[in-house]
Amino acid sequence: MNYPGNVKKTYKSTVNYRNRGMDLEALINDACKYYLDMDIAVIYKKPTPIGIVEVDYKNNAQIKKAYFKEPSTLDYNGLYKGKYIEFDAKECHTKTSFPLSNIHDHQIKHIRNILRHGGICFLIISMCDNYYLFKGEDLVEFIDNETRKSIPFNIIDKKGYKLKYNYNIGIDYIVGVNELYKELILNENTKN
What we know:
- It is a single chain.
- By secondary structure, this protein is of the alpha+beta class.
- The protein has one domain: Trna Endonuclease, Chain: A, domain 1, CATH 3.40.1350.
- It has helices at 23-37, 105-116, 136-145, 153-159, 174-191, and strands at 2-3, 7-8, 42-45, 50-56, 62-68, 76-80, 83-91, 97-99, 120-127, 130-135, 150-152, 161-163, 165-166, 170-171.
- The protein has a 6-stranded mixed β-sheet, with helices on both faces. The chain has a two-stranded antiparallel ribbon with strand order 1-2. It has a two-stranded antiparallel sheet with strand order 4-5.
- A hairpin with a 2-residue loop joins strand 9 and strand 10 (130-135).
């Protein structure tokens, strides 16, 4: 575009969708806000429980020392279509498998508890430049039946729901949750 004085301006996109780091959570937070604003779901990021030891009140009440009060469970929880939802965001920088060491033992126990009580539980995994919704049931099944310390990428790609980035939403994970919801309702109907 030429401006007065023959000044030519060019615009270059600065958005980089690779190696997002904490951006995965930012994209999920954007989706949670969108779902809340559009009255689709009520899902929030849970704060990590910390105990404050020292605060610098001269510097805008900046926390100087703190400790974790207890192990946190999963990152997000809420309600969707009358069902309790809880999930965690995980990033994987390897292209061959997702290390189970990315999930703590207390988190696996918590996932089992949520599933046992009829909730919807899953991981959102950023891997190989894609986002996947990986069901808690599939995670628990793998842990219970396999000796590997990582989930091969082909299992995540086959069993996981591939999620898409949407400019207006962020990571549109409700599409995958809809599939989980259908499975849950189908399983409940077959039990009756």
